[in-house]
Amino acid sequence: MLYSAWLLDQNCPVLWLRIAAVLLCVLGLGFGVPCYVAVRSVAAGHGPAIVMGYPTYGGGPFERVGIHSSVPLLLVFAAVCALEVASGVLLWRGQVSGAVLALLLLVPGAVFWWGFALPYAWPLAAASTVLTVVGWRALH
């Protein structure tokens, strides 16, 4: 009981920001690194590569509406992922710009998470957003 009360205590804003920062970096790196594999495969004309049994950014709703994985599309997604990592680093340092960037990246990120059918991105983004808002007062 005491432990859960401590976790819910809003007197830990720096802790919440640090956890949010880690989640943003996991989100950006977790989807950005496989994007490199997908870009190489698509550029070579092989279509999306299969990594750990899953296609790298192919076969999702984008394809069902006629948007096929292409190098430019994947590079834009890689840029969004890189910016998520950058926002995580800034947030770790307690900078408002990191929180603002993370919130701004929710829209383009959500488009790609939906379009590439990336279900694990949604809970990571939701948790990092909630933690960022809860820890907002510790930003400078």
Uncertain stretches of 5 or more adjacent residues: none
Number of beta-strand segments: 2
Termini separation (Å)?
Answer: 32 Å
Considering DSSP H and I runs of 4 or more, what fraction of the residues is helical? 55-70%
Biggest sheet descriptor: 2 strands, antiparallel
Structure classification: mainly alpha
- The overall average pLDDT, rounded, is 92
Count of the separate structural domains: 1
Q: Tell me the overall shape.
A: elongated
Number of helices: 7
Element order: H for helix, E for strand: HHEEHHHHH
**Largest beta sheet: what is the strand line-up?**
1-2
β-strand percent reads: under 5%
| Radius of gyration from CA coordinates | 17 Å
Based on the model shown, name its key terms.
mainly alpha; 140 residues; two-stranded antiparallel ribbon
Account of the protein in words:
With 140 residues, the protein is mainly α. The protein has one domain (12-138). The protein is 69% helix and 3% strand. It has seven helices and two strands; from the N terminus they run ααββααααα. Strands 1-2 form a two-stranded antiparallel sheet. The radius of gyration is 17 Å and the shape is elongated. It starts with a helix and ends in a 6-residue tail after the last helix. The model has no long low-confidence stretch (mean pLDDT 92).
List the topology elements:
Elements: H1 2-8, H2 13-43, E1 50-51, E2 54-55, H3 61-64, H4 71-92, H5 96-104, H6 106-115, H7 121-134
Antiparallel strand pairs: 1-2
